[in-house]
Design brief:
It is a single chain. The chain is an alpha+beta fold. The protein folds into two domains: 148 residues, Alpha-D-Glucose-1,6-Bisphosphate, Chain A, domain 4 (2-Layer Sandwich); 152 residues, Alpha-D-Glucose-1,6-Bisphosphate, Chain A, domain 4 (2-Layer Sandwich), CATH 3.30.530.20. The protein contains seven helices and 14 strands. The chain has a seven-stranded antiparallel sheet with strand order 1-7-6-5-4-3-2. Strands 8-14-13-12-11-10-9 form a seven-stranded antiparallel sheet. Strand 10 and strand 11 form a beta hairpin. 22% of the residues are buried.
Length: 336
């Protein structure tokens, strides 16, 4: 009996050694790549990639853990944007940072996994116009560490991760072809970060510039804390009968001097939501708009980014974008 046990152990040891030896013959690098055709302009698709906060709408891994913890830092979009996550065994934990962002053409991301094991790789998205559609290619490549080599003996990594890529691209296709596009505006104000921050968080400062060209802001209410409410008030010029308009919302997340996440929508003077249709707005005007303001110090100036998520392409989106641009023009003048 003892001889049988010894023989079995030796045989198993030989198998393990053989497998480990076979693993060393695997390639030192890996590359996984999938492509898809999407009937949308490259700039529309790119907007869903260039902002990590938009990944929740299409990423194949975002729905695997309802309690997924997400942390955003760095730039609001593009190069320097950072996304860290921590979740269950299906999603693990890690960090992504956008290293290169070439508008509507290429995105290069540094990807670090920390759980369930450590690994580093690079993800790339490339976009190429193809008539009325765009070809998108999603690739991931990097060093094939020894653990990865061992795993590849038992699991087809290209097939396993490739299926996730295919799911993600399918989700992205549905999203881009739905006609949705965020409004993203970035300005560099010739003012210190603290002044720009106050311009959005103190009622008396907001009243100095809120509203498009020709509009005034007679009042403003702000309860600046997470869960707090706000009501911004703008009054149209005489040729528009001095009509009053109110925008109200809730602050969702605040990182002092970095960013403000909130919701906003049309309201009455008390901050009660109003259905846009009752004001004669078209069906594509959203009742609630998830939004983000991001602030970044650049020397003695401030880089500011405003994002309004989920707009439907069309006249109302363009009018809202123009209105926000004119608000920022007035803010720039006020900060001088």
């Amino acid at each position: 009996m003892k001889k049988v046990i010894v023989t079995t152990v030796v045989a198993l040891g030989a198998i393990v050694v053989a497998l480990l030896g076979f693993a060393t013959t695997k390639p030192d690098t890996f590359r996984i790549e999938r492509s898809a055709s999407i009937k949308a302009a490259p700039e529309i698709i790119f907007a869903h990639l260039n902002d990590f906060r938009s990944w929740a709408a299409w990423s194949p891994w975002e729905k695997l853990d309802p309690a997924l913890q997400r942390t955003y830092s760095g730039a609001a979009t593009g190069a320097g944007a950072v996304y860290e996550w921590k979740g269950n065994n299906e999603v693990g934990a890690g960090r992504m940072e956008i290293l290169e962002s070439s508008p509507a053409s290429k995105l290069n991301i540094k990807l670090n996994f920390t759980e369930p094991f450590e690994a580093q790789s690079t993800s790339e998205f490339t976009l190429t116009p193809e008539g009325e559609a765009s070809k998108i290619t999603w690739a991931m490549h990097g060093p094939n560490q020894f653990l990865g080599k061992v795993m590849s003996i038992f699991v087809d990594i290209d097939n396993h991760i490739g299926k996730d890529f295919e799911t993600g691209l399918s989700n992205l296709k549905a999203l881009a072809e739905s006609g949705k596009q965020d409004i993203v505006l970035t300005r560099v104000f010739d003012a210190p970060l603290e002044a720009v921050w106050k311009a959005w968080t103190e009622p008396e400062q907001v009243m100095k510039w809120w509203g498009p060209t020709g509009f005034t802001s007679p009042s403003c209410q702000i309860d600046f804390r997470e869960g707090g409410k706000f009501v911004f008030h703008m009054r149209a010029p005489k040729e528009m009968n001095n009509a009053d308009f109110y925008t109200a919302g809730t602050y969702k997340k605040i990182a002092p001097l970095e960013y403000i996440e909130f919701t906003q929508g049309l309201s009455d003077s008390a901050g009660k939501k109003i259905n846009p249709a009752t004001m004669g707005m078209p069906p594509d005007f959203p009742e609630e708009i998830p939004s983000l303001l991001a602030f970044k110090r650049v020397g003695d100036k401030t880089e500011f980014t405003a994002i309004e998520y989920g707009w439907t392409l069309g006249q109302m989106r363009e009018m809202s974008k123009l209105g926000l641009e004119e608000c920022l023009d007035k803010l720039a003048e006020n900060l001088k």
